[in-house]
Amino acid sequence: MSAALYQARRPADEGSAAGAQPLELGIVKDWLVLGPFATDDPVRDIEWAFVADEAALRPDDGEKVGALAWRRVRASIDTQSTHYTNEGTCQDFNVDFVFHYGRLDNQVAYAHTYIYSPAGGAARLSLRRAGAAAKIWVNGRPTTLNPKDWDDVHKSVVTLRRGGIGCW
């Protein structure tokens, strides 16, 4: 992971890391977001595809999905709805859907980025989330997070492909 790169925009060539930037302390800061989509029950509907063929998504900034468009966002202190005062200025740089869309009751949103791994192999994923349900894909493989752990940090080991851009 120390040599991994990332970018929000779709790469021109899957095997190229041109335009990608190094991870800063292992944090992905540039993302594409899409949403929100209405749902009656996010936990029940977590397996529902609000965008066709979720596992094969390769979006780009401005690309339309119905009336919505993918939009590039940067996770920084300026794009967080919550700041921890006793634990540092802002210890987490997340895609903060509340900041971007307001309160997300009975709504779903997507975040996507591209990762380039020159060596490939196992990488530890740490994802802080607060919400009714969450699902992640790495290289087209889904993992639905336990809804009972909604206010916790999800940690897992994922496998990055060598060379090409992997999608999250």
Give a structural overview.
The protein is mainly beta and 168 residues long. It has one domain (5-167). The chain is built from 1 helix and 13 strands, in the order E-E-E-E-E-E-H-E-E-E-E-E-E-E. The chain has one helix at 97-101; strands at residues 5-7, 21-22, 30-38, 64-65, 68-69, 71-74, 107-112, 114-116, 121-130, 135-138, 141-144, 151-160, 165-167. Strands 2-1-8-13 form a 4-stranded antiparallel sheet, with no helix packed on it. Strands 6-3-7 form a 3-stranded antiparallel sheet, with no helix packed on it. It is globular and about 40 Å long. The model has no long low-confidence stretch (mean pLDDT 80).
Straight-line N-to-C gap: 15 Å
The proportion of residues forming helix, as a percent range, comes to under 10%
Q: Taking Cα atoms only, what radius of gyration do you get, to the nearest Å?
A: 16 Å
Strand content: 35-45%
Oligomeric state of shown chains: single chain
Low-confidence stretches: none
Task: Name the shape in a single word.
Answer: globular
Biggest sheet, strands in spatial order? 2-1-8-13
According to DSSP, the number of beta strands is: 13
User: Helical element count?
Assistant: 1
Class from secondary-structure proportions: mainly beta
* Sheet with most strands: 4 strands, antiparallel
* Count of all domains: 1
SSE order, as H and E?
Answer: EEEEEEHEEEEEEE
Give average pLDDT, whole number.
80
Core attributes:
mainly beta, 1 helix, 3% helix, four-stranded antiparallel sheet, 168 residues, three-stranded antiparallel sheet
